[in-house]
Write a structure and sequence with these properties.
By secondary structure, the chain is of the alpha/beta class. It contains nine helices and 13 strands. The strands form two sheets. Strands 1-2-3-4-5-6-7-8 form an eight-stranded mixed sheet, covered by helices on one side. A five-stranded mixed sheet has the order 9-10-11-12-13, with helices on one face. Strand 12 and strand 13 form a beta hairpin. Helix 7 packs antiparallel against helix 8. This is MBL fold metallo-hydrolase.
């Protein structure tokens, strides 16, 4: 499977290394890998009106503040925080940062229960294979955060607040309200965890960041049918560049081909056969599956 999904160094998007580990990879876009996950900054260096996309782990807030100061100026703050979803590694610092900056947090309405303190995600599935990250997944926090006083719904017209030219796409499966962000003009995709560009189940892969095309992290994906539909939709866009929540930004025709291969053979390449949620998805409101609490 790894060979089928493998990408090479030629498929990596060029990056400009900045202060505090910030890596610019496209006009107005930069990211910082914080432990196991990426946070993304949208906006012109030194300018105002920038946006933070996802907030990393609960320990990430000081590093994010340092990155913001280095890229946008001391005491700068974003106009908004956009959440692709609310798993612990993406929403870990959202309470701290939204309060510190006093800014709104935008998310899909189906993700609200995990951002307003109402609901927890389903249990992780450690038996999906792939390595230590999967085996450790039952230890990952799944309780909700609470930013209800600052929480706002993404606009129904699919525009992304304070990011002109971008639209949000509902890409559920990894979570009910997962979204990806799409810029049509340059065909840039901020995928969140709908697809990822490293084998996130493996601690070794997380460390080395070898580029590969994968579906969402297996250990925290409870609805594989929805995940497959989401990947197929993203493949049809034929993005020129992808930055995901895990892994390095990738680009080009071979990347497009691997994304299409993933979509076409999703059940064989992405879904953990016999996993907890293989044929029994956990979905909110499913009375027969009470994994969401």
């Amino acid at each position: 499977m790894t060979e089928q999904l493998a990408l090479g160094d030629d498929d990596l998007a060029p990056v400009d290394e900045g202060h505090d580990g910030i890596r610019a990879f496209a006009p107005l876009l930069a990211y910082r890998k914080l432990s196991i996950v990426n946070v993304i900054f949208h906006g012109a260096p030194g300018g105002s009106g920038w946006v933070l996309i996802d907030t990393g782990l609960p320990t990430s807030h000081d590093a994010i503040l340092s990155c913001a100061a280095a890229r946008f100026g001391t005491d700068s703050r974003p106009t908004a925080i956009i959440m692709t979803h609310a798993h612990f590694d993406h929403a870990g610092s959202v309470e701290y940062l939204s309060k510190h900056w006093d800014v709104p947090v935008y998310a899909h309405p189906l993700e609200f229960p995990y951002l307003n303190g109402q609901a927890a995600y389903p249990p992780a599935d450690p038996w999906v294979g792939g390595g230590a990250m999967a085996l450790l997944s039952p230890l990952f926090p799944r309780s909700p955060v609470d930013v209800s006083s600052r929480l706002k719904s993404l606009p129904p017209d699919q525009s992304v607040p304070f990011m002109p030219g971008w639209k949000w796409l509902h890409t559920p499966g990894h979570t009910p309200g997962h979204v990806s962000l799409w810029q049509e003009e340059d065909r840039i995709l901020i995928a969140g965890d709908a697809v990822v560009t490293t084998a996130q189940e493996s601690a070794y892969a997380v460390m080395t960041q070898r580029p590969e095309m994968h579906g969402p992290p297996r250990y925290l994906t409870p609805d594989w049918e929805a995940a497959e539909r989401s990947v197929k939709m993203l493949a049809e866009l034929r993005p020129n560049l992808i930055i995901s929540g895990h892994g390095r930004p990738v680009r080009g025709e071979r990347m497009q081909a691997k994304l299409s291969e993933l979509a076409d053979a999703f059940r064989d390449t992405a879904v953990p056969e016999g996993g907890r949620y293989d044929h029994d998805p956990a979905t909110p409101g499913n009375a027969e599956n009470n994994a969401y609490r």
